[in-house]
Amino acid sequence: FYLPNVVLAMKIKRRKRDIFEAFPDSLDLIMVCVEAGLGLDSAVLRVVEDMRDARPAMAHGYELLTLELRAGLAREKALRNFAARTGVEDVSMLVAMLIQADRFGTSVAESLRVHSDMLRTKRQMLAEERAAKIGTKVLFPLIFCLFPALYVV
């Protein structure tokens, strides 16, 4: 009875991790496209084409966003649906920022740049945190595998 739930939870976790890892790169691509003069919708469509093979989970999320926008759904509603589908906090923060930029008429490119810089900093901090934890993870195998061999010699 528990196996299907465990398998589903593992797949959900893997998909969220894939989206979390691909999101900063996709955001940079969207930012470049918007700064080059494309609209947000066209930029997202371009990113879907570029990321389809490399990051299918992220590309699928953007593709559904594009389909909702083409179907006539309001941009705010489509963006909120996108954030709900991904379930990643960074995507939800971006969606809130884009909705605010759209509502108040501020520059979408500038909002994307600020969010992209924030994500880059966050990614760097996570990498440093993981690197700091490696020492404690290596300690256990070192004590039980390497030290006994040294004592024998």
Automatic annotation (TrEMBL):
One Pfam family of this chain: T2SSF
Keyword annotations: Cell membrane, Membrane, Transmembrane, Transmembrane helix
Signal peptide location: none
Cellular compartment(s): Cell membrane
Keyword Hydrolase belongs to the record: no
UniProt entry tagged with the keyword Transmembrane helix: yes
GO annotation, cellular component aspect: plasma membrane
Membrane topology reported for the UniProt record: Multi-pass membrane protein
Domain Type II secretion system protein GspF: 27-152
Designated name of the protein: Type II secretion system F family protein
Classification of source organism: Bacteria, Bacillati, Actinomycetota, Actinomycetes, Kitasatosporales
